[in-house]
Amino acid sequence: MLVLMDEQRRASVQEMSPGTTHYVPGGMAHRVVNTGDAPLTLVACWPSDASYDYATIGEQGFSLRVMCRSGRPMLLVQP
Fold it and tell me: What is the pTM (predicted TM-score) of this model?
């Protein structure tokens, strides 16, 4: 699962599966979450000048989290 969050802390998710391609626009924080039982392998590339305000993420965290509940991924909105 690809978790995205913009600078206004609006979050969204995209399901990932073998062979899919995902685009992360500039200014978007992102995390990849393995929601399966098998090891996750992915390829990523980005321009050398790509950046995000990771200090804010370190202080405030993501506005959405993915947790495992009863063996299934569950989305939890963070304040």
Answer: 0.83
Q: Name residue 35's beta-bridge partners.
A: none
- Write out pLDDT tens, residues 18-76: 999 999 988 888 999 999 889 999 999 888 777 777 788 889 989 999 999 998 999 99
Q: How far apart are the first and last CA of the chain?
A: 21
Contact 44, 16 (CB under 8 A): no
Angle among Cα 51, 53, 55 to the nearest 5 degrees reads 130
Do 4 and 11 contact (CB within 8 A), yes or no?
Answer: yes
- CA 17 to centroid of chain Cα atoms: 14
Which of these, 26, 67, 17, 37, lies nearest to 2 by C-alpha position?
17
